[in-house]
Amino acid sequence: MKKAFLLLFTFTIISCGSENLSNSKAEDIISDCLEKTPQQRQELLTLGKATFSTKDYDVKLLNNYLQLKEEGYIEMELIKEITKGYRKGSKEYNIKLTDDAIDYIIESNERSAFVKTFIYKVDEVLEVQETPATNTAKAKVKFEAKDITPFAILSKKDPTEFWIKDFKLTKTSNGWKYCDNF
């Protein structure tokens, strides 16, 4: 009787420990973790005095700021246009946030503000590669942008393009884990 019980107990332990990680299970585990700490993208917005040159990057940035002004999220007041010297053609503005922008501010001071641009959410798990020797797995995850804010125009990453990232999952006695304490 003891041998039968011991054999049944051993079989149960082995069968519980041999759980494979599927794409859908990896997606559920990673999505649950990212609900707690989302992949929030943010950008730095210059406040106070800001100078925009005639270089392509500054012209694009100025156009983005002017669009935010038109939409009512920032106030911009032209201080001066520089007409002489190496900075010829540059423009200096005084920039302030409006009350409409408050919902998108993560952190701010008198010189700058970090603003939300969008959040990456799991779209799908493309593949899972298990490494049984180390009780780990690598999941290749495709993300898509959600909750896109008006400040997304400042982002270096295009929210319409997907993003792929590898995640390492660990197999424990309680199953596969990504962000939980083991």
UniProtKB/TrEMBL annotation:
It comes from the Bacteria. This is Lipoprotein.
